[in-house]
Amino acid sequence: MKMAHLLSALAVAMLATSVQGQAPAPAPASAATYPLQQPALPYQFWAQEPLIDNMTQMLHWTKHTATYFENVNKAIKPFPALQALTVEQMMPAIGTESIPMNISKAVRNNAGGVYNHLLFFKILMPATAQSNATNNSALPANIGQAINQTFGNYTVFKKNFTEAALSVFGSGWAWLTVAKNGSLAIETTPNQDNPLMVGAKYSGSQPILGIDVWEHAYYLKRQNRRPEYIEAWFYVVNWPQIDANYMAATGSNAAAITSYASA
Ligand SMILES: *[C@@H]1O[C@H](CO)[C@@H](O)[C@H](O)[C@H]1NC(C)=O
Ligand SMILES: *[C@@H]1O[C@H](CO)[C@@H](O)[C@H](O)[C@H]1NC(C)=O
Ligand SMILES: *[C@@H]1O[C@H](CO)[C@@H](O)[C@H](O)[C@H]1NC(C)=O
Ligand SMILES: *[C@@H]1O[C@H](CO)[C@@H](O)[C@H](O)[C@H]1NC(C)=O
Ligand SMILES: *[C@@H]1O[C@H](CO)[C@@H](O)[C@H](O)[C@H]1NC(C)=O
Ligand SMILES: *[C@@H]1O[C@H](CO)[C@@H](O)[C@H](O)[C@H]1NC(C)=O
Ligand SMILES: *[C@@H]1O[C@H](CO)[C@@H](O)[C@H](O)[C@H]1NC(C)=O
Ligand SMILES: *[C@@H]1O[C@H](CO)[C@@H](O)[C@H](O)[C@H]1NC(C)=O
Ligand SMILES: [Fe+2]
């Protein structure tokens, strides 16, 4: 354990604090630090059938997502200072010298993969109880008003978000984010990057909704038909959860967005 790494971890914690402008939220009750543990999903892998299929969800969670957990744990194994951080606290450190150089790529890809997939699976709901929100009056009040304010209405938001998700070349993500001043924006990131990492377009903004447009998220059922996947995905977005995420992002508890402690 080198002193430099201890100091780095301190810097990471302080950075996380200053980025949020307030004390970090208390860590969720579940094992939120090393070894990062994949939680249980609050629904079955077939819950989004037929819109998103059982096998895709199963492989996506038990293989792809599990591998990100495994590999981030492997990378930070020699670094106790990084082990003290939750995956949420790691995000603003990615792209900075706080992450030792020989694991910076592994942490970027795999801690990023963990964070992104926790968010992705948390904002989905079973197709049987879906909101099928096709217009803004069906959305919960807080996020509904914010979407109206930024985009005019839900239809415009959906169109813009779809265009963003289609514009991602190769593998990556499209996000709905909350900036530090509370305003909404749509952003895209390549690979397993996200807007919390240093170097993103509006770096430091908080994602509250994200779609994975890696082919592993849709190829089995829909092959190369990404537009069809995006349209189907919209039907199983859990808007009450997005509303809660929006309130958490504008309040003081961004860590709740990716926490499964109460799921
Ligand atoms: C989902 O897939 C798993 C694994 O193939 C299978 O055991 C299960 O029966 C499937 N469930 C449904 C509802 O299709
Ligand atoms: C990174 O360096 C540390 C020593 O500082 C070493 O323990 C670890 O095995 C290295 N990791 C990789 C992936 O090279
Ligand atoms: C929601 O929309 C999907 C896709 O059009 C449809 O399959 C499903 O039956 C709808 N569910 C409800 C409850 O309206
Ligand atoms: C919008 O959604 C609300 C609530 O689901 C529904 O009552 C209303 O008919 C919808 N309006 C349009 C224009 O689709
Ligand atoms: C958003 O605007 C639409 C009209 O474009 C309106 O029907 C809806 O009630 C508004 N939603 C909220 C949450 O204010
Ligand atoms: C939505 O997309 C339209 C058309 O590309 C663009 O003019 C507008 O600025 C976008 N709005 C937001 C809030 O991103
Ligand atoms: C949403 O806003 C656009 C642009 O102002 C408008 O053309 C469209 O009719 C609106 N849709 C709804 C459902 O209000
Ligand atoms: C809020 O911050 C975003 C991103 O930094 C910026 O684009 C936007 O103009 C700001 N909005 C206000 C009302 O200051
Ligand atoms: Fe994925």
Tally of individual helices: 10
Biggest sheet details: 3 strands, antiparallel
Low-confidence stretches: 1-31
Topology order in helix (H) and strand (E) letters: HHHHHHHEEEHHH
Helix content: 40-55%
- What is the C-alpha radius of gyration, as a whole number of Å? 18 Å
How much of the sequence lies in strands comes to 5-15%
Overall mean confidence score, pLDDT: 88
Bound molecules: 2-acetamido-2-deoxy-beta-D-glucopyranose, fe (ii) ion
Q: Taking strands numbered 1, 2, ... along the chain, how are they ordered across the largest sheet?
A: 2-1-3
Alpha-carbon distance between the termini?
36 Å
- Please give the number of β-strands: 3
3D shape: globular
Query: Helix/strand-derived class?
Result: mainly alpha
GO molecular function: metal ion binding; superoxide dismutase activity
Family: Belongs to the iron/manganese superoxide dismutase family.
Keywords: Metal-binding, Oxidoreductase, Signal
Domain Manganese/iron superoxide dismutase C-terminal: 142-244
